[in-house]
Write a structure and sequence with these properties.
It contains 25 helices and five strands. The chain has 620 residues and is mostly helical. The longest helix has 34 residues, at 271-304.
């Protein structure tokens, strides 16, 4: 995750720096590298003192909820631009023109978001392989650059601008910092240090292992490439602004290969440059996916913290906050679509203000939080870093009005949504309208198209749940009998339920026949990168299931179990083992083939790991 953001920054930092300062650009790249190293060093301490989540939202809450929201919304602004910029740059590296890259990036963001709607959990493996391939290719390119360093040093020019102009140019290439804020949010799910426990968590060792390797690779190679590009003869300022590393691979690797006699067959082909485009473009697309998921996670955390409308945090059948996912899809598309001429320049202008602001709020919150047991050295270094980062944020806001307008718009929309949530609850007219339409169609015997019923169950499961809870008990029993289907006679002890379905009826009847206790397990799937607390009392869908089972099974001893997990199969197996059941009932999967492809077959996963003494009964 960290390398997908930090590691890809070198793909555009070098080109943008050369476009700004040409032969004196190395000094800008050097300054960016040093700042990146210092900020990364500070975030090891942030992770150390916030083992349950060290992002800006968590750190700033020690002072003020409003300050935490400012940092959180600035982070949202960063993720919006990160998703748009990473996807756009991917297609620039794939060889598309800026206009075509913009069109393909918009389409790809939509596709990536649509895939995440189903909550896939296997994209991390692909990101690891892409990161390893990128490291290997970058290592080859770095070795190829070494013989050209003397020529690059000879072509270097001293900065000839005034100090203030140089400072403004430096703030224009601060594009390599957002990943460290992402990793700080992940401390809550990191492996604990040796000797630590959940009661006294420590993740400083894990944080160092996560940050140091990526930090060293990014800083060293960015500086090396920032120096080596000055050895390329007759390179115009904007000739390869968006795909500098690809062009360096062509000049430093492919062209020398053509001079090897037995490789003359290569002709005008550029295999290494093409490989560079492929791995960097793939990793940039992975960074797009990471930014979208991280954006949803931050907003979902705010919803569960009662700072944003609770309706935004509604989960679909796949454990994904679907309204927030729509926002995470449409907002980056809008940011990318409004770019007029050079989208790379426009996105670069918008990029830094969000992440630099979030880092400033985070570091400042830690520095002035005297409850943290920081050493004097740690607090002094972090305070100095905070002053520098704050100065960069102020400079960007003053010199780049569009960036300030963008950040202000995100803050205004965020606080506007919060004010609307705190002052006037979001109206429930949409849910009431759907329920009224459904009741009217049933009363007049008008069939409802299956696709509409499925969409309602998938997108708005809470609507049916709340409606069922509000019905009189007699009407509820009649409706439940219709929903649960005919009686069946087979033994059962535990049933994993995701809704009011005939599977529950089957489980109840078997419990009656065998006079056994019935365990009803409801698992709320949540796929976010930031851990959030969910409770049974706030989950209306779970309450509706438990209410339904008790309404039609008063003579059965029922134990309800509520669990929150991102691994459905493991959670079912774990609770079945703890309860000591001898039979497990599962309903047949209603997922589409595409969903099963993305997330795997639940029945196969449970059946392959279920102990022999527990029988698996599949209903459907």
């Amino acid at each position: 995750m960290l390398y997908g953001d930090w590691g890809t920054s070198k793909a555009y930092v070098t080109g943008i720096a050369f476009a700004i300062a040409m032969q004196s650009s190395f000094w800008l790249v050097l300054a960016v590298g040093l700042l990146t190293a210092i900020v990364g060093f500070n975030y090891i301490w942030v992770c150390k003192y916030f083992p349950e989540g060290g992002g800006v939202y968590s750190a700033a809450r020690a002072h003020s909820r409003h300050l935490a929201l400012i940092g959180g919304f600035l982070l949202v602004a960063n993720y919006l631009v990160t998703a748009a910029l990473s996807c756009f740059e991917a297609f620039v590296y794939f060889g598309f023109t800026y206009e075509d890259a913009k069109r393909w990036a918009i389409l790809t963001i939509f596709i990536i978001g649509a895939v995440n709607f189903f909550g896939p959990r296997h994209s991390g493996t692909l990101a690891i392989w892409l990161a390893l391939a990128t490291v290997a290719v970058m290592a080859i390119l770095a070795v190829a650059c070494l013989p050209h360093l003397p020529a690059a040093v000879a072509n270097l020019e001293r900065p000839r601008r005034a100090p203030m102009e140089w400072w403004v140019a430096f703030t224009g290439v601060i594009l390599a910092l957002s990943g460290v804020e992402s990793i700080a949010n992940m401390t809550g799910v990191m492996k604990l240090d040796p000797g630590a426990s959940s009661a006294q968590p420590r993740v400083s060792v894990t944080a160092r292992k996560a940050i140091w390797p990526v930090l060293i690779e990014v800083v060293v190679l960015t500086m090396l490439f920032g120096l080596a590009m000055n050895a390329i003869p007759n390179l115009g300022a904007r000739d390869h602004e968006g795909d500098m590393l690809r062009y360096m691979g062509q000049v430093f690797v492919d062209e020398p290969l053509r001079n090897v006699s037995w490789l003359g067959w290569l002709g005008q082909h550029t295999p290494f440059a093409d490989l560079t485009s492929l791995v960097i473009g793939g990793l940039l697309l992975s960074a797009t996916n990471t930014a979208i998921v991280a954006l949803v996670s931050v907003l979902y955390l705010m919803c569960k913290d009662n700072e944003m409308p609770a309706q935004f945090g509604r989960l679909n059948r796949f454990g994904v906050p679907w309204i927030l996912m729509l926002i995470a899809i449409l907002a980056p598309i809008l940011v990318l679509d409004i770019q007029t001429e050079n989208a790379l320049h426009g996105l670069a202008v918008l990029y830094a203000i969000g992440v630099v602001g979030a880092i400033a709020v985070n570091l400042g919150s830690c520095v002035f939080n005297f409850q943290l047991p920081m050493t004097r050295t740690e607090r002094s270094v972090m305070a100095a870093t905070f002053v520098v980062v704050l100065a960069i944020e102020i400079t960007i806001a003053v010199t780049k009005p569009m960036a300030a307008l963008f950040a202000g718009t995100v803050l205004a929309l965020g606080f506007g949504a919060r004010a609307f949530h705190k002052g006037v609850r979001l109206p429930s007219w949409f849910g009431r309208w759907m329920l009224a339409l459904s009741d009217w169609s049933h009363a007049h015997n008008i069939p409802v198209p299956p696709i509409l019923s499925r969409l309602k169950r998938t997108l708005l499961p809470h609507v049916e749940a709340e409606h069922a809870m509000a019905q009189p008990s007699e009407e509820l029993v009649v409706k439940l009998v219709k929903q649960l289907g005919p009686e069946r006679h087979t033994g059962a002890i535990m049933v994993a339920a995701r809704g009011v379905t005939p599977t529950l009826r089957f489980a109840i009847e078997q419990a009656r026949v065998h006079q056994a206790e019935l365990y009803v397990l409801f698992i709320r799937e949540v796929f976010t990168t930031i851990p959030t607390r969910l409770v049974e009392e706030e989950d209306t869908e779970a309450q509706a299931v438990f209410h339904a089972i008790r309404s039609i099974a008063e003579d059965v001893k029922i134990t309800t179990i509520y669990a929150v997990s991102d691994d459905l199969a493991w959670t079912i197996l774990d609770h079945a083992a703890i309860a000591g059941v001898d039979s497990l009932i599962l309903g047949h999967s209603r997922r589409m083939a595409f969903t099963r492809l993305l997330r795997g077959n639940l029945l196969e996963q449970v059946g392959s790991q279920l102990p022999e003494e527990i029988r698996l009964i599949v209903v459907g």
